[in-house]
Amino acid sequence: MKTEKEKKREKRKCYLIIECQEEIPCNPCEEACTRGAIEVGRPITRLPCFYPDRCNGCAKCVAACPGLCIYLVEEEEGSDKVIMTFPYEFLPLPGKGESVDIVDSNGRNLGQGIVKRIKNTNAENGTVLISVELNKEIGSKARSILTNGERSAEPELVTEEIEDTADFQVCRCEEVLLSELQTITELGIILAPNLRRFSRVGLGLCQGKACGELMLSELSRLSGVALDELGYPKARPPVRPIKLRELGC
Ligand code: SF4
Ligand code: SF4
Q1: Whose alpha carbon is nearest atom 2 of ligand 2?
Q2: Which of 40, 54, 131, 171 lies at a CB distance of 3.0 to 4.6 Å from 27, suitable for a disulfide?
Q3: What Å distances lie between residue 11 and 3, 55, 70, 74, 133, CA to CA?
Q4: At what angle do helices 192-199 and 212-223 cross, to 10 degrees?
Q5: Is 57's C-beta closer than 6 angstroms to any atom of ligand 1?
């Protein structure tokens, strides 16, 4: 005969919302999960794949993700509430039982929730896990919380231009700064394939997937040449690093 606890557990469903969209070399979520419920595999730039049947809701992956883009959802059969666990890296921490604002990925207020659990995971560089009970209907959009000190019904939109963008990294793989692109275009090198040879922009691990569009739009802005006249750098296979043995060598 099943105990009340076992019956309750059967009615409970856990799953993750993983908002990982950039194909960057990253896999702490896979490493953190001892049950094999998250797979990045090879190459390491693949997006994580989640196997809900293997997940026990431990939330280790939520704390381990450096991008803070994994959220755990616990649902109970027949309930119109869910408990969502968010990674949280601000101080002061909210208290258990405190009412917090639930916000979406743009900081828009979706409603309120009640803090049910707070777990300080020293093992994960101090990322704290805050579990909040909230209405199920807002669960799919909920991405973070605002505590008493941060409450804001309508977030202020930052509209002013950033003054100094010279140190902005256009290409993160090869660490190419906007100021370097500017210097190169001032030398008259304005075709995208040539710019690539001079600066190494787009020649890193992502092969221009992350920075290609940005590089072209900045090049167009700096040179005054229309986008469709700049050319598009060729991507040569393999587009991702592979081992020599995979080529049969
Ligand atoms: S919540 Fe736990 S079991 Fe589920 S995927 Fe994350 S680390 Fe694995
Ligand atoms: S740890 Fe986070 S950012 Fe990295 S692959 Fe996993 S979900 Fe994506």
Answers
A1: 65
A2: 40
A3: 13, 15, 23, 10, 17
A4: 110
A5: yes
CA quadruple 176, 182, 183, 189: dihedral sign = positive
| Non-local CB neighbours of 185 within 8 Å, separated by 6+ positions | 195, 219, 222, 223
Please give the distance of CA 103 from its chain centroid, rounded to a whole number.
Answer: 16
Looking at all shown ligands, the one closest to residue 87's CA atom is 2
Separation of CA 174 and ligand 1 centre (Å): 33
Q: How many domains does the chain have?
A: 2
What's the angle, vertex CA 39, arms to CA 88 and CA 50, rounded to 5? 65
Q: Per-residue pLDDT tens for 11-25?
A: 889 999 999 988 888
CATH number at residue 189: 1.10.10
Host domain of residue 142: 4-150
Ligand 2 atom showing the smallest separation from residue 70 Cα: 7
What is the 69 CA–ligand 2 centroid distance (Å)? Answer: 7
Q: Which element (helix H / strand E) includes 102?
A: strand 99-103
32 within ligand 2 shell (Cβ under 6 A):
no
The CB of 63 under 6 Å from ligand 2? The reply is no
Q: Which residues contact 1 (CB under 8 A, 6 or more apart)?
A: none
Q: What is the mean pLDDT of residues 66-79?
A: 93
Nearest to 15 by CA among 70, 90, 64: 70
Q: Is the pTM of this model over 0.70?
A: no
Whether 29 is covered by a domain: the verdict is yes
